[in-house]
Amino acid sequence: MERFNRKNHWENIYKTKELKETSWYQQTPQTSLDYLSAFNVPVSAKIIDVGGGDSLLVDYLIDLGYEDITVLDISEKAIDRARQRLGDKADKVKWIVEDITHFVPTESYDFWHDRAAFHFLTSEDDIAGYLKKVKENINPDGILVIGTFSEQGPKKCSGIEIKQYSELSLTNQFKDYFNKINCHSVNHRTPSDTTQNFVFCSFRKSAANG
């Protein structure tokens, strides 16, 4: 059986679908913006959006005055589309084309945001690698925000199996390195007018892992 090529799959998705045709499209990424506001994340904070693709969160971050923004995505096409959309503003962002499982950070972050990337990691090795990255590359007292499909959400996205999480199972993944702040359920309405249920959890890096 031919080995699944994750990068090729996502390049094809972004080559064949416009942003507003994708199930994850949000004109206003309100949940993510609410977390920034709730934690009073300063404009000088080092922020990374994992799996950010060509989502509009980066537009809001720039408009809010954030000065140190990194967007990482496996798809070069997605990153190119975001850069073209932003025009000259794109120069204010560090763009990284990389599979998160292969990403080797060269700096640490104060706010690590991941909406719907983590749940694509279904192997124990990939999950363990992700956990190691957040442990080693989030600053002391840094914030981690993760959003995944819940146990009431889809079992697939864009033709790929995902790993569903509950508040408890998502918390358990990060409990060795982070203290949970809160979790809540979010219903996302897709452009095709279906509802996807997410669980979002926020964590603060524990003192023992600073």
Task: Explain what the structure shows.
The chain is an alpha/beta fold and 210 residues long. Helices cover 29% and strands 30% of the residues. The protein contains six helices and nine strands; from the N terminus they run H-H-E-H-E-H-E-E-H-E-E-E-H-E-E. It has helices at 6-16, 30-38, 57-63, 76-86, 124-137, 167-174; strands at 46-50, 68-73, 93-97, 109-115, 138-149, 156-157, 160-161, 178-189, 195-205. The strands form two sheets. The chain has a seven-stranded mixed β-sheet, with helices on both faces. Strands 6-7 form a two-stranded antiparallel sheet. Strand 4, helix 5 (124-137) and strand 5 form a beta-alpha-beta unit. The longest helix has 14 residues, at 124-137. The N and C termini lie far apart (43 Å). The model has no long low-confidence stretch (mean pLDDT 93).
Per-chain topology:
Blueprint: H1 6-16, H2 30-38, E1 46-50, H3 57-63, E2 68-73, H4 76-86, E3 93-97, E4 109-115, H5 124-137, E5 138-149, E6 156-157, E7 160-161, H6 167-174, E8 178-189, E9 195-205
Parallel strand pairs: 1-2, 1-4, 2-3, 4-5
Antiparallel strand pairs: 5-9, 6-7, 8-9
N→C terminal distance: 43 Å
Q: What is the helix fraction of residues, given as a range?
A: 25-40%
The coarse overall form would be globular
For the sheet with most strands, the description reads:
7 strands, mixed
Low-confidence stretches: none
Structural class: alpha/beta
Mean pLDDT figure = 93
Supply the number of helical segments: 6
